[in-house]
Amino acid sequence: MGKSRSIRRERAAAETVVEDVDGGRAELIPDRDRPRAWSLLIDGAPQSHVDLDDPAHLSFEYQRRLGHVIDLAAPPGRPVRAVHLGGGALTLARYLAATRPRSTQQVVERDAALVQLVRRELPLDPGARIRVRSTDARAGLAKVPDGWADLVVADVFSGARTPAHLTSGEFLDDVRRALAPGGLYAANLADGPPLAHLRGQIATAADRFAELALVADPAVLRGKRFGNAVLVACDHPLPVAELTRRAASDPQPARVEHGRALADFTGGAAPVTDAAAVDSPAPPPSVFR
Residue 285 has what pLDDT? Predict the structure, then answer.
């Protein structure tokens, strides 16, 4: 009973933190079901969820799908070297540190004020090997040594849109340069009907990598609604069967497309170049209601 009362008091005492950051109005909203968990919103758009007591808990469906990729990037528990393009509340870096102790991570987050807010209100485990750079994602990626990363995760949004310079083949050339042989690239993509952006991103990755897989809600793949899709790319065979099993057993089940089915889904879309790149489409207002 004493512990229960203490948790209730902590929940009651937790208040929303609102602060202007470089990218807009940031809100840290306490999770009423988890005593030390918070959601991060930027201008009303959900960005991250963090549970300080359980950093292996991933609340957002797209982050769980990226978590599946992290789980399959190497044998269980083996440390990896990871680069995160886009930091938010550092949810995935915390997850990797918890599930793969002694991993070395670099996080590139352009919004320096957001980084300061997150470090102050949601402090990192001091034992986690996480370095945060406050710079543009592509500029930060350029500083990663050749062949350093076992895993590169791209989850970059500005105003709920992925900036154009992070959607091109030239950007993926630098991802490939930074990846170690056999390393994995995973990207959180957002699109809605007619899915032109998503198809273009798949075509661009297929032009640079030998193996691809796409993880998404079937309704998103059918062009029925706006949503997230996780693209996974590598130059060696991907663990498609295990990724499919994990995606299907998720609380919000997803489908994995691979091989011929994924090529057919791309529908002849052309790879994106720096010269032709545009920001990803803005989500409709109904997405965040």
Answer: 82
> Each residue of 35-63: pLDDT tens digit?
999 999 999 989 999 999 999 999 999 99
Q: Which residues, in sequence order, are bridge partners of residue 39?
A: 29, 49
**Cross-strand bridge partners of residue 133:** 108
pLDDT digits (tens, 9 = 90+) for 234-279: 999 999 999 999 999 999 999 999 999 999 999 999 999 999 999 9
Instruction: Output the CA torsion sign for 177, 178, 184, 189.
Output: negative
Crossing angle, helix 91-99 and helix 61-72, to 10 degrees? 40
- Decide if 23 contacts 159 (C-beta within 8 A): yes
Say if residue 90 is exposed, middle or buried (CB neighbours under 10 Å; 0-12, 13-18, 19+).
buried
Distances from the Cα of 140 to the Cαs of 29, 132, 133, in angstroms? 29, 10, 7
**Which burial class, exposed, middle or buried, applies to 265 when counting CB atoms under 10 A from its CB (0-12, 13-18, 19+)?**
middle
- What residues form DSSP beta bridges with 187? 154, 231
Q: pTM (2 decimals)? A: 0.94
Measure Cα distances from 58 to 43, 52, 66, 134, 249 in Å: 22, 11, 10, 24, 15
